[in-house]
Amino acid sequence: MTTIRQEDFIASIADALQFISYYHPLDYIKALGEAYEREQSPAAKDAIAQILTNSRMSAQGRRPVCQDTGIVVAFIKVGMEVKWDAKMSVTDMVNEGVRRAYLNPDNVLRASIVTPPYGARKNTGDNTPAVIHYEIVTGDKIEITLAAKGGGSENKSKFTILNPSDSLVDWVLKTVPTMGAGWCPPGILGIGLGGTSEKAMLLAKEALMEPVDIHELQARGASNPLEELRLELFEKVNALGIGAQGLGGLTTVVDIKIKEYPTHAAGLPVGMIPNCAATRHIHFTLDGSGPAVLTPPNLDEWPKVDWHPAADARRVNLDTVTRAEIASWKPGETLLLSGKLLTGRDAAHKRIAELFAKGESLPPGVDFTNRFIYYVGPVDPVRDEVVGPAGPTTATRMDKFTDLMLDKTGLIGMIGKAERGPASIESIKKHKAVYLMAVGGAAYLVSKAIKASRVLAFADLGMEAIYEFIVQDMPVTVAVDSNGSSVHETGPTEWRMKIGKIPVMKA
Fold it and tell me: Considering the entire predicted model, what is its pTM?
């Protein structure tokens, strides 16, 4: 009978979460490298280059690939012959491992978990509790699969119950475009079929933990209906032309993973969950011999991609930029920003709206006149860092505040990831402002452009406080110009038409 010691279990959880914070799964990176080589869209190719360069930098610097270090999801299979040498419950041991990982002073990870989920939503400070799924199995070992699931991709999860005669393919192709780009493609789609509503969603999440192997499946051909479905969806989802970061291109997904379970004859429950460009998961086994041994990947196997800004990128001084200057910026144009940049995301925007509703002014020192706001919740710095990884958060969550901010504060521009909604685009056009897009999944790369950082207001909000960054050559793309033209609308449309005229992509 195997004995699992409490400290070995906790240490394994903590070490694994640190490991996946800075090491991408090699199968994903290789698939992304192949997508980079195939890509014909300049904007998408540049975005993939930033993601790949960021991945190598994170692995070398042992800092998170994304500022959103996720909600921890654990799948734990406990052998029936296992004996425990522990005083804590398994759930408490998992959460202690999470706590140690996220508070590790050598690589602080961002705490994103709030409780209660409705109401005060106070940050727990250590990213606990994890979401844990248990299964009791035969044997004398414990198998653990851990994931750190980012909020941007998790928020795009979809569920439906189809009629037995409905087309699953049609539903997927109709639904994926509604997910926008907030899930940071290119990524993976996990699909769960059957069971009940909650089972289908769990299957979809589990599917995301499987290895990327669509290229092998294409090479050997499908041997069953599920594999046929994977190949069909892979081809047709990519033919949508959404592309990297929603900019339009050949690769939206690097794989489609599907798990199924028997279901009631009356329907077909379907769960669909995307994994983003910062996909993070790991599998290991505990057999009583000690903590898990995690072998770092060989960086020589990373694609030889080293992103640099384009020679013709326009340099912008944020301290002197005017409305007349931003009116000359073109959709899809690359900019390099330097100067002072304010930050703010969900909680800060809500506070500002509450202040205005009460007839109060902005906090002392906060002035958005002719300034840009960056939607970000950075990781705390370590050692000599000015700031930790600081990639963009999904801009659509701030859409409800856009008109207020542009109308009341003097703000002339916003920076985030993914598309803006119709109302925000109309407000941007009305106020002759602009929206710029930074690459989601390139947080460590972006942080290197931040040369100074200080909290200006709402310090109690932690990573959601208003910061002032001083940046130098921060790379962004003009996503919505002052006339309301959006590359997230024009790009996918253009590439969907192009893909219809070129050979189908192969992994």
Answer: 0.95
